[in-house]
Protein 1
Amino acid sequence: MAGRDGKKQARSANVGRRMLVGMGAGAGVFFAAAAMATGSAAPAKADFEDLLDPIIQPILTSLTDSIGAFDPAAALDLTSWTDSLLASLNSIDLALPSVAEPAAAVAAAADPTTGTYDIPLTVLEGTEPAVNASIDGGSSVPLLVDTGSAGLVIPWQDLGSGSELSDLLSLGLPTGIHESGYSGGVDYLYLTYNSVPVDYLNGGTDVLSTDGPVDVEVYSWDPSNLGSLFTNNAFENFLGSNDVSGILGVGENSAGPTTSPFESFGNVTVDVPGNDLIVGGDPVTGTSLSGAPIITDYISIDGGPLEKVSSDIDSGGVTGTIPASLLTSSEYNSTTDLVNPGTTIAVYANQAGTEPLYNYTVTAANAPIVVSGSTMDSGVEPFLLGPISMEYTPAGTGTTFFGS
């Protein structure tokens, strides 16, 4: 996604004590939203420590872990300082409203939506499929179409109207606060809003409107960069080099952070050659494999033997990744950790290897990154070659269809 080391596996939150520091302009917004997100059974008057401690937990551990990598003693001091701060705020009482998920939103999620909708899709920088959308009536913003994650994620600064705090507060009460991250350099804290109107656009015209979950990033940091803990701009920097403002995660058996906004439409088709993101209707005709986007397939390098591998069919994965264990030393550059140009890659549905799902020759522009481990990321390459559908059944697993 952002940069050559690209996207990201969305990660679930870890549980632990975490501290809010260095939030700059975002601090007031975060604390205002955090006060609204503390649950449905909040007391009429509550101590700040009781209210904020479970909210702070999704971030303090990542901060202390990151600081600990540089200075273990400083990480211990940070936790101690946090405890003192919360204790000192106990004299402040808050009256909190109750939060309940609207019954209408629950009913809408359970009722499959009919119809087929073609949303214009463009490819930015040669590797970034994107669509334009308006979130809660804001101006149009570009969103990366990402089959490798699930959930519409956008920074609070980019909601669209130019009045950031008003934009955030207009969303109402969040239903939760969580942590997630994308491999490639960002961890983030986000608020989930379960019923947000989003209009997907063709120029200035609405093609499709949804009323579902949106995840609003309110604080972010680069786990490899201590200084980013104090700037709160890691997420925007992560997206900035890709000319997009947010991530439209449309996968099913990915790591999240939440769910695809198109879940109730049955499936989506990413048709890069046809310049369309197709929501609903029938999946493309071709070969289907269990999982969306995580599948099991077989890969052949330079015409060599087929190797079984777990693959993330990931439209947001830039040039993708390949495990070093699948390559010989002559097939990649150990200095740059990139597959050598001229190497051929063919991916098959089964060990018979009769016809590839997709195949291509590596160039300097599309060379996958060589990684450790045993799983690979397809990157955007198979999407550039033909349409691919992600079907949301069976629930929690999904099905991937490679167009013939």
Note: The helical segments are 26-36, 48-70, 72-88, 103-110, 164-170, 234-240, 381-385.
Protein 2
Amino acid sequence: MANFRQAMSKHTFIYLVKSDIIIAENNVQSKDHHHHAIKIILQLRNKSSLLFNGNIVEHNTIIFNADRIHSLDSQSNPVLIFLINPESELGSHIRSGFLVNNDVFFTNIKYSQHLINHFNEFVSKQQSINEVLHIYDEIITAVCGDPADSFVIDERIRRIFMEINNLEDKKAPVKDLASLAYLSESRFMHLFKEEVKIPVRQYLSWLRLLDALKLIIGGKTFTEAAMDSGFTDLPHLHKTFTHYFGAKIQDYFNNSRFIQVWDFSDV
């Protein structure tokens, strides 16, 4: 995600959809950051380019692996960004189909005029639930095809995902999670990182941050969201957000004139 130039024409629309995030932005400047999500970036304006990791990119679609440091400058061009949960069936499909040998995949897709029209609408005004779900399905199909691959992950780790999702504050001693997987603590930590690509504590931190964002969207103060989602205090939430998104949390949620957020994750 990003730091944004404070211009009157600047708009950012953020939608939480299923276990993913859609961001429509018309002017992006994000410094080096990383997050636990596969990133799909679309730029569908004619003859437009952007800077990705400091390099000029003229492809209309970029797919970037989770947990890799990157920067993005849209050069004042609008972009549509999808942050995909890498543990989902779709995330597994993208990794196995596009990111096996490289962390970034550049391509030019011939999008239909119908999708281009949707792109222009998304980067200019708020969309309804039905429109968001529609564009989510159409874009994912156009970029990734049908994610028919099975969700390939160790059954013990999949069971841990279900246990973690039932934790209100996404906190649990690693030794307890290891016990649920019938593994020693060291073996569990090794297997989790092997399957999920990040340490279990970092994964829990990412989930707590997503919970905090949902609480803020729902009207909680930053402090309430920090406490209710399992952070030790407000500075801990601020530090975690900046670490993952390369921007300060108040840059998003204290400026509703330019940035609007909706939670459709339970639809």
Note: The radius of gyration is 18 Å.
